[in-house]
C-alpha cells in the first residue's frame, strides 16, 4: 500500500528526541526498579511520533483544554516512557521524573488521571479501546475535528472486551478514532503467539470493518506517514511491529522480558555509553 508523503518534519531531531526518551526511561527504571521497563522501551517511537510529530492537539498549560485530542495509554505498563515527554512539553516539572512511585509523588508506576496530560486510569487491561469509543462518539457529536488515539499492547488484545469495542467502532464509523497496537509479540507470560495467537491482526481488523495499516513501529518516518493517512467513515488501526525491551542486551525480545528488570551495573553501563 502506498501512503502520502508525511509532513515536513526534522526526522533527525525526532530520532534524537526518541534517543533521549529511551535514556530517560532507563533513568526512571534505575530509580524505580518496580517499573515494567521492557514494555516502555517498545513504544517510544510511537509516542514521539504522536506528541512531536504534529498529530495530537494539546495545551500543556491547560491539560483539560476542551479542544484537545485525547490520548489513552491503555498499555499502562509501558507508559513510563510517556512521562519524560509530558515533562519535556511542560505538563509538569521535570523534577517529578525523579520521584516516580514515592509516597506523595505526582507520578505513579501506572498512570492515572491526577497526572496532567493523562486522560484515564490505566490499571486493568482491555478497557482502553472501549473508553476510546465512548470518547470518539461524544466528540463527534460536539467537535468532530478532535481525535482519539488509544495505545494498546498485542497481549492486551487477548481481552474480549476489545473486540466488542472494535465492532462498535466500525458500526458507528468512528473515523476520529485511531488504535495503535504496540505489536512487540511478547506478553506477561511469554510470546503472544504461544499463548493465544492473533494470526494476522490486520486481516482480523479489516474483517471487523477497520482501516488497517502495518508498519515498523521503530521507524519514525513510517509512523508519521501512516498517521497522516485519512480514513473517511472508518476507524483506523495501526499495527506497529516493535521489539520488547528494545536496545537492552538480554532484555530485548526475551520471552519473559515483561517481568524482568535491568541489573544496576548494566543500567549504569548503558547510560554511560549513551552520555
Q: How would you characterize this protein structure?
A:
The protein has a domain at 40-78 and 110-245: Thiamin diphosphate (ThDP)-binding fold, Pyr/PP domains (Rossmann fold), CATH 3.40.50. Mean pLDDT is 92; it is low at 1-6. The chain has helices spanning 11-31, 37-41, 44-52, 82-89, 128-142, 160-171, 192-195, 201-207, 220-227, 264-274; strands spanning 70-73, 148-153, 177-183, 186-187, 190-191, 211-216, 236-241. The strands form 2 sheets. Strands 1-2-3-7-6 form a 5-stranded parallel sheet, with helices on both faces. Strands 4-5 form a two-stranded antiparallel ribbon. It contains 10 helices and 7 strands. The chain is globular, with a radius of gyration of 18 Å. α1 runs antiparallel to α10. The chain is of the alpha/beta class and 275 residues long.
Question: What shape does the CA trace take?
Answer: globular
CATH class annotation of one domain = Alpha Beta
- Architecture per CATH nomenclature, i.e. the level-2 architecture of one domain: 3-Layer(aba) Sandwich
Supply the helix-strand structural class. alpha/beta
Strand content: 5-15%
Uncertain stretches:
1-6
CATH superfamily of one domain: Thiamin diphosphate (ThDP)-binding fold, Pyr/PP domains
**Which topology of one domain does CATH recognise?**
Rossmann fold
State the distance separating the first and last CA atoms. Answer: 39 Å
What oligomeric state do the depicted chains represent?
single chain
Q: What is the residue-averaged pLDDT?
A: 92
